[in-house]
Specification:
Keywords: Carboxypeptidase, Hydrolase, Protease, Serine protease. It comes from Aciduricibacillus chroicocephali. This is LD-carboxypeptidase. There is one protein chain. The protein has two domains: about 140 residues, 3-Layer(aba) Sandwich (Rossmann fold), CATH 3.40.50; about 140 residues, LD-carboxypeptidase A C-terminal domain-like (Glucose Oxidase, domain 1, 3-Layer(bba) Sandwich), CATH 3.50.30. The protein is about 30% helix and about 25% strand. α9 runs parallel beside α10. The termini are close together.
Length: about 300
Amino acid sequence: MLAERLKPGDHVGVVALAGPPCPEELERGICLLKSLGLQVETGRHIYEVAGYLAGTDDARLADFHTMVADPRIRAVFFARGGYGSGRIAPLIDYRLIRKHPKIYWGYSDMTYLLSAIRQLSGLAVFHGPMIASDLGRSEHPLEVLTSFHQLFVPRPTVIEHSEGNPLYILAGGEAEGELVGGNLSVIASMLGTPFELDTTNKIILLEDVNEPPYKIDSMLQQMTYAGKFAEAAGVVLGDFANAEPTGSGPSFTAEEVFNEYFGCLPIPVMKGVPIGHCEPNQPVPLGVKAILSASRRKLEIAPGVC
């Protein structure tokens, strides 16, 4: 199921469902979102703080359900990640989401809710830069803003090797399947829960930030033991920013860890895709058909709106 495309003048919502956003960055991001011709409404509790959360679970859930149920709201953008979206995943009315299909856009900790929404409602969602922590913090905001244009004009996303955007093949092959995934840490934390990521015949997107090699190793080990790569059609590795060894002792590099886990897989694995905690952070729809070609070093993804 695809949400309808946006048009200038449409109402969209911005909510904070994980960590509290910086007010100045949030306001800057909202102003830029308005420059697209959109009318922006924010959650009632968006500026609240409860420890490391953007308000209590009940407050964040209320903001989200209000946006979902409001027929005027055509898209819901998440303000920032951090931690906390998984706390409200069991409380969300997924039938309400299916009844009012609209665009949901975010990444990082929002992987938890985006995956839950996609799997429990059947609605395609978007892995893309967030309003405060990306758009409001960017040194090149207009470049980031152009990535939102795919919400207005349905078109395939094509990511391929170039001199300015080198892509690397860890395992060869060709694959077709639904694109799923997001933040590695969050996906690993979902294992064994009702929201565990289904990877059967899927192309898995993985990205993360500030995770040293041994933690990446641990999370990939957990996913391997859970059979997630054995079930998959292919793997796409996005940006893993600041994946440096910690301490002064010996360590593998992140590249060595990736080669160990993915180099011998019988499915295509491509790394270096500019998706994640990087700029530009290429937005992609999740829950739509994708084609991964190792021989052409190319990823083609169907539109996420209709």
